[in-house]
Amino acid sequence: MEPTPEPPVASSETGGSGVGSSIANSLLSLRNVTKSFGAVQALRHVDLDVPPGKVTALIGDNGAGKSVLIQTIAGIFPPSTGEMYWRGERVHVHNPRNAADLGIATVYQDLALCNNLDIVQNMYLGREEKRHGVLDEIKMELETKRLLADLSVTTVQSVRQLVGSLSGGQRQSIAVARAVMRESQLVIMDEPTAALGVSQTAQVLALVRKLSERGIAVLLISHNLNDVFSVADYIAVMHLGVLVSSGPIANYDTTSAVELITTGASAKVPSSLVRAGHEG
Ligand SMILES: Nc1ncnc2c1ncn2[C@@H]1O[C@H](COP(=O)(O)OP(=O)(O)O)[C@@H](O)[C@H]1O
Ligand SMILES: [Mg+2]
């Protein structure tokens, strides 16, 4: 009898929670990722697939482990156990530099912008363009204008404005623009609209869509289900450190999303998209 050939690509990795999701066709995959801080188990056996060029919303209650999860991806907290794959290859991210080198950019809640510097200075902070040993202000200014125009960030009046004088939405846009300056393929955003009003939120969500149109994947943490359902292609729900469900947004509605966020389960979501037996 002929031996059965091995399938060419991994199509059924252990515990993958989304239909058709696999390491091979994802930009980023986590498998069995666990993170403990002493007695606190912040992440328990997390499996996550982030498809390329799409918006994936990461949702969950306070303390569910969303921030720890993205900080793990970004190399701030190395996982206690588990694996990470980038474009199907196993990778080891030990620090933020490793993540940045892969093309992962993270925009944290505090944005880490300098209010007393202007937009151009913020964009190039720590990586200033020089010409004959002198800062190339003209080049940096032109590049900043070009990038903001590319991203359809149109409300900023002058790139020489101090960042401290910008609105919350504009500051968020500058932080995102700075993140994508270096050939990023995945932009992770932690609650980008949490402190914003309606029109500023719309600006930031438009920017999220724009990144995806440009082929950049976005992993977006949000508390706001309106934002999630207006902008996301995929959803991933965390509950008490467990990634309880993930899949295309069409499989969810606000009721099932709320159920998953609050209880970790929902009868309304196809069982193939829910990880069973996560208790304990
Ligand atoms: N640096 C840390 N040290 C110890 N525990 C932490 C640390 N960061 C987060 N945690 C704990 O991990 C859990 C998940 O937190 P977090 O990821 O911030 O939740 P959220 O989903 O609200 O972003 C919480 O119980 C939190 O207290
Ligand atoms: Mg958080």
Give me the secondary-structure topology:
Blueprint lengths: L27 E10 L2 E11 L4 E6 L5 H8 L7 E6 L2 E3 L4 H7 L1 E4 L11 H5 L6 E2 L2 E2 L1 H14 L17 H13 L5 E5 L7 H16 L3 E5 L3 H7 L2 E6 L2 E7 L5 H10 L17
Parallel strand pairs: 3-10, 3-11, 6-9, 9-10
Antiparallel strand pairs: 1-2, 1-4, 4-5, 7-8, 11-12
The structure holds adenosine-5'-diphosphate and magnesium ion.
Magnesium ion (MG) binds next to α1.
User: Percentage of helical residues?
Assistant: 25-40%
How many individual β-strands? 12
Summed over residues and divided by their number, the pLDDT gives a mean of 86
Radius of gyration: 20 Å
Which shape, going by the Cα principal axes?
A: globular
Q: Helix count, per DSSP?
A: 8
| Strand proportion | 15-25%
Largest sheet geometry: 6 strands, mixed
